[in-house]
Structures are given as C-alpha cells and as structure tokens.
Design a protein that fits this description.
Elements lengths: L6 E5 L4 H12 L3 E6 L2 H11 L7 E5 L21 E4 L10 H29 L2 E8 L10 H21 L4 E8 L1 E2 L14 E2 L1 H13 L4 E4 L3 H10 L2 H4 L5
Parallel strand pairs: 1-2, 1-4, 2-3, 4-5, 5-6, 6-9, 7-8
C-alpha cells in the first residue's frame, strides 16, 4: 500500500500519463522522483506537484536511449525509491529504417535495461515495486504496427520474467496493458469511448494494482475481454483481417 513514508520514481514523468501517475501518488503523500530527458518539462511538472507533495519532489535526467537505458542516474537517487514506474514509450508504424529502430529501442531495449538495473537494486535490498506501462498491442502482431507491437510484446515478456524471478525476493512487478488513451497526441482521432481511457484512469489503475497486489491489469478493463477474443482467432483467419 503506497504511503506518505514511501518514495515513488516515475520515469517518463513529462508525458501526460507519467504526470498523472505522479499526481496520484502525490495525493497519497508520497515523495516523488521525476525522471525524463526534457529538463524544462520536468521542472514544470515538479512545480505543479510541489505543494501537493509537500515539497518532496526531485527531478533527474534519464534518456532510455542512452547507455544501459539511461540508468546511471539511479546511483544518485537518495533514497532508493520504494516504487518505480516506467512510462516510457513511442508509437510508430514504420517497419524498417531509423524510425523503426528508435521505436524498438524506446519501447523495449532502453526500458528493459533500465528496469533490469532497478530490479537488481530492489532485489539486493529485499523489497520494492516495479511497474511497467505496456500495451495491448503487444498481445498479437498486427500489420499496421508490427514493430511497435513486437517491442511492447518483448517488454510485457520482460516484466513477466522479472515477476517470476523476483516474487520470492520481496519485489512485486506489475504489468499495465493500456489500450487507447486520450492524450494530446491522439486529439482528433475517433475511438470507441468504452475502449478509451484517460491518463488519470491509467494512474488510478497503477495505484490500485499496487494496493491490491495485482500482477497484470488492463486499462480500460474491457480490453482483457477484447484481447482474449483477438488471441482466439486462428492465424489463417487473423491474417485476413485489417487490424
């Protein structure tokens, strides 16, 4: 159960989802460590949360495209957080070239290295919570976002592996599989309301998953049923669908 005595690290805190997650934990009185690569935006988010978090907010530079997923800053954290949430992600449809490589590195390679470093420290200490924001796109490869989906699939598998490895070491690993989320980047897109969440919905899902010791959660919850149906379609039929 997140409490005012705990410290929460949010990597990707400059995103709307990351800022909403930080806000939710600040409401509980948690101390915040905000990490990202846009210093000006980090400072702005920290300023917005300063009063709510009773001044216990710090900012840290982290670029998951850097060496070891940008994990060098972890050694400077004081204290080592009780909860670490990785919200880093980049959507893209490219299947080849530099953009595809950036999508893979941003959604899987960088976060995998970063969470691996944090996990090792949590394991050594004997407690902690790791949360990774993945995507329903990782459940099955689709024609229009094969690279993005494969990267998220890898990230989901990584979180599962860490959970299985660390469950006896006092470390809880949560996988959040998000569907459509209303953000500035998605403005103007037509999406079913029942399948679309807000950044605040994602934040609440993260908070509840930790409180209830959940392993895997979907946002919105109906995606669990939707993806069950998608996984059930035989490949010979699935490849004919325009998904």
């Amino acid at each position: 159960m997140p409490t005012k005595d705990q410290t929460v690290l949010v990597v990707g805190a400059t995103s709307e989802i990351g800022a909403a997650i930080a806000h939710r934990f600040a409401e509980e009185g948690c101390a915040l460590q905000l990490a990202g690569r846009n210093a000006a935006r980090l400072d702005a988010v920290a300023a917005e949360l300063h009063e709510l978090a009773d001044g216990r907010v710090s900012t840290h530079f982290c670029d998951v495209l850097g060496p070891e997923g940008g994990s060098a800053f972890i050694d400077d954290l004081e204290p080592l957080p009780d909860i670490a949430v990785c919200v880093v992600g980049l959507y893209g449809r490219a299947s080849i070239g530099e953009e595809a490589l950036r999508v893979m590195r941003t959604n899987y390679v960088g976060p995998a290295l970063l969470l691996g470093s944090i996990a090792a420290r949590f394991e050594s200490r004997g407690h902690g919570v790791l949360v990774g924001i993945s995507s329903v796109s990782g459940e099955r490869g689709r024609a229009h976002n094969a690279v993005y989906g494969s990267a998220k699939s890898g990230f989901t598998a990584l979180l599962s592996g860490l959970r299985n490895r660390l469950h006896g070491a006092g470390v809880h690993v949560v996988t959040v599989k998000a569907g459509y989320v209303n953000t500035r980047a998605s403005e103007g897109l037509s999406r079913p309301r029942s399948l679309t969440a807000s950044p605040q919905d994602v934040a609440e899902a993260v908070f509840r998953a930790i409180r209830r010791r959940r392993d895997v959660v979907y946002v919105a919850g109906i995606w669990r049923l939707v993806m069950w149906a998608v996984r059930a379609v035989p490949e010979r039929w699935f490849k004919r669908l325009e998904l």
